[in-house]
């Protein structure tokens, strides 16, 4: 009976059931994994020690990425027989490379150069063996198709930018997980509409793992952080989703996103990208220091200093990012350059509003 069911079952004809099952399985596996991780971390004293940059005061386990990784790998392994095995195997390979690099960084210390090399290797595997890359600029600044090697180099740069930009926003309870959850949810919608069920399955599995993680990340009693393990693999997947979406749109002239995919991708990742560029500008131009020198100038740090709680900071930033994405969907009919200019304007204004509101209420 089971054999007959498996032979006749096709995910494409049962998309809703398929995605719900992938989400539920990822959530269940991650949910069951986290208690063991917490126990081992506490028994072996694998905890994050608060320092001058910390916004928390208690020792906290930083191995949340392990649960996210296990949930993802189990789902991709089980569904691999039904979907695009090549893509799934390469994604799993990239995730595994970054998992062990992040784990070493969480447990001991890993140099920035080694992390960069690992990120380049993981991204390079997907670019070379799947030819999933940003083909051109879709006429941004009148630049269309890029030469192959420039396209590969630019795509690698985008991978590194997104992975590290995402890592930088992991500084407030629930923020990185909630932002990634909402972005991944939008990618599920985009991939389903593009009939890319393999990518939609990975995205929905990530949502399931993140939801299980957020339960503990928001907890006061059994709190756990994502750590570099989690931020690197989640950032890597967000980069992969972004580049895959842009690539699909650029190759399909009938797609509704053919000329608008870069603007929509920027909207999805607006918060981590704008925060990264803002922090780098402050460090280099204002403080005359290295752009990689850690500080407390991130937007989420400013929210905390303005009097917002961790929970309210996460709710505000995540909600604003969702509003930005919603506006971007409604501006797809405009010229791409116009969309990007508007995005920079309304995105920046929206993130200033909570500070103006706080200032008005204080006065």
TrEMBL record:
Listed transmembrane segments: 15-41, 62-81, 87-104, 116-140, 146-167, 174-192, 198-218, 230-251, 263-286, 307-332, 338-357
Keyword Transmembrane helix: yes
GO MF entries: transferase activity
Membrane topology of the entry: Multi-pass membrane protein
Keyword terms, alphabetized: Cell membrane, Membrane, Transferase, Transmembrane, Transmembrane helix
Principal localisation: membrane
Signal peptide stretch: none
Localization per record: Cell membrane
EC number: 2.7.8.-
Name of the protein this chain belongs to: MraY family glycosyltransferase
């Amino acid at each position: 009976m089971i054999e007959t069911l498996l032979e006749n079952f096709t995910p494409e004809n049962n998309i809703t059931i398929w995605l719900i099952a992938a989400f539920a399985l990822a959530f269940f596996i991650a949910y069951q994994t986290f208690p063991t991780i917490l126990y081992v971390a506490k028994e072996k004293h694998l905890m994050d020690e608060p320092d001058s940059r910390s916004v928390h005061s208690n020792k906290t386990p930083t191995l949340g990425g392990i649960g996210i990784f296990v949930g993802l790998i189990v789902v991709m392994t089980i569904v691999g027989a039904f979907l695009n095995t090549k893509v799934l195997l390469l994604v799993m390979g990239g995730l595994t490379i970054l998992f062990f690099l992040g784990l070493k960084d969480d447990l001991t210390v890993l140099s920035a150069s080694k992390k960069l090399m690992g990120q380049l290797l993981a991204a390079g595997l997907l670019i070379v063996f799947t030819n999933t890359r940003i083909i051109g600029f879709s006429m941004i600044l009148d630049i269309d198709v890029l030469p192959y090697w420039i396209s590969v180099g630019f795509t690698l740069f985008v991978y590194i930018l997104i992975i590290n930009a995402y890592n930088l926003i992991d500084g407030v309870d629930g923020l990185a997980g909630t932002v990634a959850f909402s972005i991944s949810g939008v990618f599920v919608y985009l991939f389903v509409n593009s009939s890319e069920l393999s990518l939609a399955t990975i995205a929905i599995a990530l949502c399931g793992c993140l939801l299980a993680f957020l339960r503990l990340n928001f907890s006061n009693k059994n709190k756990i952080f994502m750590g570099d393990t989690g931020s690197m693999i989640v950032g890597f997947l967000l980069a992969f989703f972004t580049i895959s979406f842009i690539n699909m749109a650029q190759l399909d002239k009938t797609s509704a996103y053919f000329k608008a995919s870069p603007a929509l991708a920027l909207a999805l990742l607006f918060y981590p990208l704008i925060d990264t560029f803002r922090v780098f500008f402050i460090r280099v131009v204002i403080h005359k220091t290295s752009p990689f020198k850690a500080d407390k100038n991130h937007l989420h740090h400013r929210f905390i200093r303005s009097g917002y709680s961790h929970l309210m900071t996460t709710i505000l930033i995540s909600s604003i990012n969702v509003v930005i994405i919603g506006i971007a969907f409604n501006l797809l009919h405009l010229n791409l350059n116009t969309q990007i200019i508007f995005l920079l304007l309304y995105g920046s204004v929206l993130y200033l509003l909570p500070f103006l509101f706080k200032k008005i209420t204080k006065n």
